[in-house]
Write a structure and sequence with these properties.
The chain contains 2 helices and 9 strands. By secondary structure, the protein is of the alpha+beta class. It has 2 domains: about 55 residues, 2,3-Dihydroxybiphenyl 1,2-Dioxygenase, domain 1, CATH 3.10.180.10; about 50 residues, 2,3-Dihydroxybiphenyl 1,2-Dioxygenase, domain 1 (Roll), CATH 3.10.180.10. A hairpin with a 5-residue loop joins strand 8 and strand 9. The longest helix has 13 residues. It is globular, with a radius of gyration of 15 Å. The relative contact order is 0.19.
Amino acid sequence: MRIDHLAITVSDLQRAKDFFVRYFGCTSDTDYHNPRTGLHSCFMSFDGEARLELMQWDGIDFMPARLQDKTYFHLSVSVGSKEQVDAMTARLQTDGYTVKSGPRTTGDGYYESVIALWDGIELEITI
């Protein structure tokens, strides 16, 4: 048994797709639109088996998660090495994203950084 995919709702589907292609080399399947429900979605494929479904809805006001000290969820992407964590963190910061923490070794032994994206989404970059 394995998890097939995780889905997140975003306010701008194209922006989210472009982000995952640009920074993580994801590939995207064909955009899907269900005119009856107003759903627009696509699957982003990472190296390996993990997939992320990005969703946006017509006619429904988007309500981002509230960024407080702790969020409801985060997305973690493994980039393979401590050096890659550092490099990706620096690249995202240079491109205007907020580094919330790190890069650092956490109390439970993970080397990671946490980046604030958009819509209340936090991205954890780890080895």
